[in-house]
């Protein structure tokens, strides 16, 4: 059975999708962009953007009763691979080195609202 996960501590969906869905103990989190849920505004600059995306993901995980330790897969979309090293350091700072998820990072030509980064995740209940 599918359960929709939603929190005011992450940006509201801007289209026909949910922030996340839980099915059979697996949480599928929609791609998060750097929107501050308190203001509804975008943050700018890859450092601030990456922190905001990770905070948005964390809020959704928390709503589902999970943490980054539950994440088994992440997909990262960057507008420029030149931002990879900065993004990677910030991304890693939110995770436990003993439970890094599987991941791919791809460069794309454009993202929603013309942001520099979007991250989606899949997490599993222990």
UniProtKB/TrEMBL annotation:
Which SUPFAM superfamilies does the record associate with it? YjgF-like (SSF55298)
Database matches in Pfam families: Ribonuc_L-PSP
InterPro entries attached here?
RidA, RutC-like_sf, YjgF/YER057c/UK114
Q: Which family does it belong to?
A: Belongs to the RutC family.
Protein name from the UniProt record? RidA family protein
């Amino acid at each position: 059975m599918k359960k929709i996960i939603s929190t005011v501590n992450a940006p509201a969906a801007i289209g026909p999708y949910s922030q996340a869905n839980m099915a059979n103990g697996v949480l599928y989190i929609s791609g998060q962009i750097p929107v501050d849920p308190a203001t509804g505004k975008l943050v700018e600059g890859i450092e601030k953007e990456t922190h905001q995306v990770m905070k948005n993901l964390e809020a959704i995980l928390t709503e589902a009763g999970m943490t980054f330790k539950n994440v088994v897969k992440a997909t990262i979309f960057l507008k420029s691979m030149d931002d990879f090293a900065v993004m990677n350091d910030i991304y890693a700072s939110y995770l436990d080195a003993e439970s890094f998820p599987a991941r791919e990072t791809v460069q794309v030509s454009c993202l929603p609202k013309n942001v520099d980064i979007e991250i989606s995740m899949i997490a599993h209940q222990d």
